[in-house]
Amino acid sequence: MGLSGRERRILAQIEQALEREDPELARRVAAINRIEAVGGLPGRPYGDRARLWALAHGWVILAAGALVMVLLLVAVLTT
């Protein structure tokens, strides 16, 4: 559902006030909006692939940590 004309005007006024009062924050919000619109980081058109890559590596790190803990437990129990 889209915004009404009145809601769009109010949002534009809020954006203009933010730009006047805190230009740095307005710049950061605009950068976040650009990232969200593209679906990834600027200059990285593979937003979904990058997320999957990070998720896969997270699971590999988690599995490696679990393996190390199991091996340490086995080493302690067998001594």
TrEMBL record:
Origin: domain of life: Bacteria
UniProt keyword terms in alphabetical order: Membrane, Transmembrane, Transmembrane helix
Transmembrane helix as UniProt keyword: yes
Protein name from the UniProt record: DUF3040 domain-containing protein
Keyword Transmembrane assigned: yes
Transmembrane segments: 52-77
Listed Pfam families: DUF3040
